[in-house]
Protein backbone atom coordinates (compact mmCIF):
# COMPACT_ATOMS: atom_id res chain seq x y z
CA UNK A 1 0.00 0.00 0.00
CA UNK A 2 1.31 3.44 -0.93
CA UNK A 3 1.75 6.04 1.77
CA UNK A 4 -0.34 9.21 1.72
CA UNK A 5 1.41 12.18 0.17
CA UNK A 6 0.25 15.70 -0.65
CA UNK A 7 0.13 16.49 -4.35
CA UNK A 8 2.40 19.36 -5.43
CA UNK A 9 1.05 22.88 -5.82
CA UNK A 10 0.53 23.34 -9.55
CA UNK A 11 1.85 26.58 -11.10
CA UNK A 12 -0.65 29.37 -11.76
CA UNK A 13 -0.24 29.12 -15.58
CA UNK A 14 -1.19 25.42 -15.36
CA UNK A 15 -4.04 25.95 -12.90
CA UNK A 16 -5.59 28.91 -14.63
CA UNK A 17 -4.30 29.18 -18.21
CA UNK A 18 -5.99 31.04 -21.05
CA UNK A 19 -9.51 30.24 -22.19
CA UNK A 20 -8.23 27.60 -24.67
CA UNK A 21 -7.83 25.11 -21.80
CA UNK A 22 -11.40 25.52 -20.58
CA UNK A 23 -14.53 24.12 -22.21
CA UNK A 24 -18.13 23.51 -21.29
CA UNK A 25 -18.66 19.87 -20.26
CA UNK A 26 -20.89 17.62 -22.33
CA UNK A 27 -24.01 17.47 -20.16
CA UNK A 28 -25.35 14.48 -22.13
CA UNK A 29 -22.37 12.32 -21.14
CA UNK A 30 -22.42 12.40 -17.33
CA UNK A 31 -19.76 9.69 -16.98
CA UNK A 32 -17.26 11.71 -19.01
CA UNK A 33 -18.09 14.87 -17.06
CA UNK A 34 -17.67 12.96 -13.78
CA UNK A 35 -14.28 11.64 -14.94
CA UNK A 36 -13.18 15.19 -15.81
CA UNK A 37 -14.24 16.52 -12.41
CA UNK A 38 -12.63 13.66 -10.47
CA UNK A 39 -9.47 13.89 -12.55
CA UNK A 40 -9.13 17.63 -11.95
CA UNK A 41 -9.93 17.25 -8.25
CA UNK A 42 -7.07 14.78 -7.91
CA UNK A 43 -4.59 16.75 -10.04
CA UNK A 44 -5.22 20.25 -8.65
CA UNK A 45 -6.08 19.23 -5.09
CA UNK A 46 -3.41 21.38 -3.42
CA UNK A 47 -4.43 24.42 -5.47
CA UNK A 48 -8.06 23.80 -4.54
CA UNK A 49 -7.09 23.52 -0.88
CA UNK A 50 -5.31 26.90 -1.08
CA UNK A 51 -8.35 28.55 -2.70
CA UNK A 52 -10.68 27.03 -0.09
CA UNK A 53 -8.50 28.16 2.81
CA UNK A 54 -8.32 31.75 1.53
CA UNK A 55 -12.09 32.02 1.05
CA UNK A 56 -12.76 30.24 4.35
CA UNK A 57 -10.46 32.64 6.24
CA UNK A 58 -11.98 35.74 4.67
CA UNK A 59 -15.51 34.66 5.59
CA UNK A 60 -14.38 33.29 8.96
CA UNK A 61 -12.91 36.63 9.98
CA UNK A 62 -16.24 38.26 9.23
CA UNK A 63 -18.26 35.88 11.50
CA UNK A 64 -16.07 33.45 13.48
CA UNK A 65 -18.78 31.92 15.73
CA UNK A 66 -21.15 31.16 12.84
CA UNK A 67 -18.28 29.67 10.84
CA UNK A 68 -17.17 27.44 13.71
CA UNK A 69 -20.71 26.20 14.38
CA UNK A 70 -21.38 25.44 10.73
CA UNK A 71 -18.02 23.73 10.23
CA UNK A 72 -18.53 21.54 13.30
CA UNK A 73 -21.92 20.39 12.00
CA UNK A 74 -20.61 19.59 8.50
CA UNK A 75 -17.59 17.68 9.82
CA UNK A 76 -19.80 15.70 12.20
CA UNK A 77 -22.29 14.78 9.47
CA UNK A 78 -19.50 13.84 7.05
CA UNK A 79 -17.69 11.64 9.57
CA UNK A 80 -20.98 10.07 10.61
CA UNK A 81 -21.91 9.32 6.99
CA UNK A 82 -18.51 7.76 6.28
CA UNK A 83 -18.76 5.60 9.42
CA UNK A 84 -22.33 4.50 8.62
CA UNK A 85 -21.36 3.90 4.98
CA UNK A 86 -18.55 1.61 6.03
CA UNK A 87 -20.33 -0.22 8.86
CA UNK A 88 -23.92 -0.65 7.67
CA UNK A 89 -24.40 -2.97 4.69
CA UNK A 90 -27.60 -1.26 3.43
CA UNK A 91 -25.98 2.18 3.41
CA UNK A 92 -22.76 0.80 1.95
CA UNK A 93 -24.59 -0.76 -1.01
CA UNK A 94 -26.67 2.42 -1.49
CA UNK A 95 -23.48 4.52 -1.52
CA UNK A 96 -21.91 2.19 -4.09
CA UNK A 97 -24.98 2.17 -6.36
CA UNK A 98 -25.83 5.90 -6.02
CA UNK A 99 -22.66 7.83 -5.13
CA UNK A 100 -23.93 11.22 -6.30
CA UNK A 101 -27.24 10.85 -4.48
CA UNK A 102 -25.35 9.80 -1.35
CA UNK A 103 -23.24 12.98 -1.46
CA UNK A 104 -26.39 15.08 -2.02
CA UNK A 105 -28.07 13.44 0.98
CA UNK A 106 -25.03 14.15 3.16
CA UNK A 107 -25.13 17.80 2.06
CA UNK A 108 -28.88 18.01 2.73
CA UNK A 109 -28.46 16.52 6.21
CA UNK A 110 -25.71 19.07 6.89
CA UNK A 111 -27.96 21.91 5.79
CA UNK A 112 -30.88 20.74 7.93
CA UNK A 113 -28.71 20.40 11.03
CA UNK A 114 -27.07 23.79 10.41
CA UNK A 115 -30.47 25.43 10.18
CA UNK A 116 -31.22 24.08 13.67
CA UNK A 117 -27.98 25.44 15.14
CA UNK A 118 -27.70 28.65 13.09
CA UNK A 119 -24.77 29.72 10.98
CA UNK A 120 -26.28 28.47 7.72
CA UNK A 121 -25.51 31.54 5.64
CA UNK A 122 -22.02 31.97 7.11
CA UNK A 123 -21.13 28.40 6.31
CA UNK A 124 -22.71 28.63 2.88
CA UNK A 125 -20.40 31.52 2.12
CA UNK A 126 -17.31 30.10 3.84
CA UNK A 127 -17.46 26.47 2.77
CA UNK A 128 -19.95 26.13 -0.04
CA UNK A 129 -18.57 29.11 -2.02
CA UNK A 130 -15.10 27.54 -2.30
CA UNK A 131 -16.74 24.20 -3.12
CA UNK A 132 -18.75 25.89 -5.88
CA UNK A 133 -15.62 27.58 -7.25
CA UNK A 134 -13.70 24.30 -7.12
CA UNK A 135 -16.52 22.38 -8.82
CA UNK A 136 -16.81 25.04 -11.54
CA UNK A 137 -13.06 24.92 -12.22
CA UNK A 138 -12.95 21.11 -12.15
CA UNK A 139 -15.92 20.94 -14.53
CA UNK A 140 -14.60 23.46 -17.03
CA UNK A 141 -10.84 22.76 -16.99
CA UNK A 142 -9.74 20.40 -19.74
CA UNK A 143 -7.31 17.67 -18.74
CA UNK A 144 -3.83 17.33 -20.19
CA UNK A 145 -1.63 14.26 -20.52
CA UNK A 146 0.27 14.91 -17.26
CA UNK A 147 -3.06 15.25 -15.45
CA UNK A 148 -4.31 11.93 -16.83
CA UNK A 149 -1.09 10.08 -16.02
CA UNK A 150 -1.01 11.35 -12.40
CA UNK A 151 -4.62 10.25 -11.94
CA UNK A 152 -3.95 6.79 -13.35
CA UNK A 153 -1.19 6.32 -10.79
CA UNK A 154 -3.60 7.39 -8.01
CA UNK A 155 -6.36 5.08 -9.23
CA UNK A 156 -4.01 2.12 -9.61
CA UNK A 157 -2.92 2.50 -5.99
CA UNK A 158 0.66 3.45 -6.81
CA UNK A 159 0.13 6.78 -5.10
CA UNK A 160 -2.31 7.96 -2.38
CA UNK A 161 -3.33 11.57 -1.78
CA UNK A 162 -5.81 13.16 0.64
CA UNK A 163 -8.26 13.97 -2.19
CA UNK A 164 -8.04 10.39 -3.45
CA UNK A 165 -8.92 9.11 0.01
CA UNK A 166 -11.81 11.59 0.28
CA UNK A 167 -13.19 10.68 -3.15
CA UNK A 168 -12.90 6.98 -2.34
CA UNK A 169 -14.81 7.53 0.93
CA UNK A 170 -17.57 9.28 -1.03
CA UNK A 171 -17.68 6.45 -3.58
CA UNK A 172 -16.34 8.52 -6.48
CA UNK A 173 -13.89 6.62 -8.68
CA UNK A 174 -12.52 7.95 -11.93
CA UNK A 175 -12.37 4.75 -13.99
CA UNK A 176 -12.18 1.02 -13.53
CA UNK A 177 -8.84 -0.70 -13.05
CA UNK A 178 -9.08 -2.39 -16.45
CA UNK A 179 -9.24 0.98 -18.20
CA UNK A 180 -6.25 2.15 -16.19
CA UNK A 181 -4.29 -0.93 -17.13
CA UNK A 182 -5.24 -0.46 -20.79
CA UNK A 183 -4.11 3.17 -20.67
CA UNK A 184 -0.73 2.30 -19.15
CA UNK A 185 -0.16 -0.49 -21.67
CA UNK A 186 -0.91 1.87 -24.57
CA UNK A 187 1.53 4.45 -23.16
CA UNK A 188 4.25 1.84 -22.81
CA UNK A 189 3.80 0.80 -26.46
CA UNK A 190 4.29 4.41 -27.66
Automatic annotation (TrEMBL):
<keyword id="KW-0007">Acetylation</keyword>
<dbReference type="GO" id="GO:0005856">
    <property type="term" value="C:cytoskeleton"/>
</dbReference>
<keyword id="KW-1003">Cell membrane</keyword>
<keyword id="KW-1133">Transmembrane helix</keyword>
<protein>
    <recommendedName>
        <fullName>PRA1 family protein</fullName>
    </recommendedName>
</protein>
<dbReference type="GO" id="GO:0005789">
    <property type="term" value="C:endoplasmic reticulum membrane"/>
</dbReference>
<feature type="transmembrane region" description="Helical">
    <location>
        <begin position="41"/>
        <end position="61"/>
    </location>
</feature>
<dbReference type="Pfam" id="PF03208">
    <property type="entry name" value="PRA1"/>
</dbReference>
<feature type="transmembrane region" description="Helical">
    <location>
        <begin position="67"/>
        <end position="85"/>
    </location>
</feature>
<keyword id="KW-0206">Cytoskeleton</keyword>
<keyword id="KW-0812">Transmembrane</keyword>
<keyword id="KW-0256">Endoplasmic reticulum</keyword>
<dbReference type="GO" id="GO:0051051">
    <property type="term" value="P:negative regulation of transport"/>
</dbReference>
<dbReference type="InterPro" id="IPR004895">
    <property type="entry name" value="Prenylated_rab_accept_PRA1"/>
</dbReference>
<dbReference type="GO" id="GO:0005886">
    <property type="term" value="C:plasma membrane"/>
</dbReference>
<keyword id="KW-0963">Cytoplasm</keyword>
<keyword id="KW-0472">Membrane</keyword>
<comment type="similarity">
    <text>Belongs to the PRA1 family.</text>
</comment>
